[in-house]
Amino acid sequence: MFTLFMISIITFTISYVVMTLATLLSKKTIMDREKNSPYECGFDPKGSARLPFSLRFFLIAVIFLIFDVEITLLLPIASTLNLTNIFSWFFTSLVFLIILLLGLYYEWSQSALEWS
């Protein structure tokens, strides 16, 4: 128990020293407005909060999330190829990809209508 406690203390001490040194040695300029403002959703964070939201940014974020989830669902399908019947594997993968492509086409067609 004492060894675990000492390892924890040493780890926290080293982390604190490294973070303090990084803060003291960094060359941050306070006057640079562009580097200090976070870019989160396509508008100036120091401006009014009542400005209309950029629909283009929202759609790009949604498409990114769709493809991110798609990858996490497709990787297990590829790893189960050796464990299942090839016909059921192919049929399941094909149905999944068709559903994803139809969703992507629908999202793209809706965004194209709103942008024009």
Written overview of the protein:
With 116 residues, the protein is mainly alpha-helical. The protein has one domain. The chain contains four helices and no strands. Helix 3 packs antiparallel against helix 4 (86-115). The chain is flat and about 55 Å long. The N and C termini lie far apart (67 Å). Belongs to the complex I subunit 3 family. It catalyses: a ubiquinone + NADH + 5 H(+)(in) = a ubiquinol + NAD(+) + 4 H(+)(out). Its main location: membrane.
Summarize the topology:
Elements: H1 2-25, H2 33-36, H3 55-79, H4 86-115
Enzyme class: translocase
GO molecular function: NADH dehydrogenase (ubiquinone) activity
Protein name: NADH-ubiquinone oxidoreductase chain 3
Helix/strand/pairing class, anyone? mainly alpha
**Residue ranges: pLDDT <50 for 5 or more in a row?**
none
Mean pLDDT level:
78
The major β-sheet equals: none
Number of strands: 0
Question: How are helices and strands ordered from N to C?
Answer: HHHH
Beta-strand level of the residues, as a percent range?
A: under 5%
Helix content: over 70%
Task: Provide the descriptors you would attach to this structure in a database record.
mainly alpha; 72% helix; 0% strand; flat; mitochondrion; ubiquinone; transmembrane; NADH_UbQ/plastoQ_OxRdtase_su3; membrane
Short summary of the structure?
The chain is mostly helical and 116 residues long.
